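During the reporting period, our protein records have gained a structure token line. A sample record is set out beneath this paragraph:
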Amino acid sequence: MKSFTCIQVQRKTAVRFRVFSKKIAKTHSEALELVMHFFETNQLSPRDSMGSSIHTLESLIKKRVNGLVAILKNIEREQTLPTTAMLQTLFEGTPIEQEETLVEIESNDPSFETDSVFENPMEDFFMYQKEKELEIKDLHQKNRILKTDLQTFLENSKLVSTTFGKDYFKLEVSSEVFENIKNHL
């Protein structure tokens, strides 16, 4: 047979405990045992306030989870997606730059007509290609001229050192050469 002991408690507290113990257990001893077990396993003290600490912990956990989500999204955007795109292009055998170049030519070039129906698409393509090749040759020619003009400037410039103030470069070319270079620009 189980032995019982008396504990002296205020009448108001005893009434509250009896109502509480009927809700959670069959006997008062079982209810008191459950309450003590709860506090011991969760390492809680009845004197501590749990309301503010639970909200604080909840907000801290939410912040950490949001931080992890941001890190994962960044990893996906910066590492996973570009790697996936590179692997896809590798398996397809077509580099990304070629596809982008084709789109840029179609959308940005006003001489390339996308609305009209071509009678002979291959002939139109070759004409377009020849026009672009001529433009490229013209740009190469202008580039060579600018390079020679720059070389002329560099060869005919001399550093002048001054005792007071900053040093400067002096250009020693005739006015005709200077006007010729000016006209090339």
